[in-house]
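Thread: "does anyone have the structure for this chain?"

Original post by V.I.:
We have the sequence but no experimental structure in hand. Need at least a predicted one for the grant figures.
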Amino acid sequence: MMRITTTRFGRIDVAPGDVLHFPSGLPGLEDCRSWALLADSTNDALGWLQSTTRGDVALAVVSPRRFVPDYQVRIPRSELSPLAIGDMRQAQVVVVVGTNGTNLTLNLKAPIVINLETRTGRQVVARGELALDYELSNDRPRLKKSA
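Reply from O.Q.:
Generated one for you, tokens below.
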């Protein structure tokens, strides 16, 4: 087991087989290449991408289709080639949750794609007109704010 001390979750244990590798890191977090995807204890719609090397870095993530049922992501093959994904069914797609000061938002333009078999991930830029800050309105299932 790998023990990580985090600012959000305290000390957590992560099995080595549960660690996700992001060879290029994430934009703005290029030094964070090793991550764990954690479930939220109070909200089953929400997950956390926790850096295993920087305890102060955790990104709230969700499955985009849960909030945008018609979400279609078209990703250039060149963006996916480092992940060695032959079939999108072996991939998990999540988007980062943010805030615009008033409401929660989803970054639909730059989803995070994870190859579930090789445990590698990458944030990619999707083709088409997708919002960087898609606002969750009150008529959709809401994410609970966490402390």
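V.I.: this helps a lot. The chain has a mean pLDDT of 90.
O.Q.: and Helices lie at 77-80.
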